[in-house]
Amino acid sequence: MSARSIADNITPAERREGLADRMASAAAVRGGALLLQRAAPELADGYARYYLKAAGVAFSGGDAQAALAAAFPLDARVRDAIASQIASVYAGI
What contacts 24+ positions apart, CB below 8 Å, involve 32-41? Predict the structure, then answer.
């Protein structure tokens, strides 16, 4: 899901500059967070805290989702495409 969103939402010039490769990990982590927010919102903050810890980001409380977004920045075009794909899947259920 995240790879397709990246491929569909960056320009050829951005692809040549390596943006797709640099965004891949952040898109996977943030895509997982978006999916959990939809499927099991009670697990989303734990997921965010796990990835913050794995990335070595100090987090002492507050908004775990905002901290995750800051630690794993993602172009809005890609984030919105991932969210749209998740919404499409849920609409078909």
Answer: 33/65, 33/68, 34/79, 34/82, 34/83, 34/86, 35/86, 37/65, 38/86, 38/87, 38/90
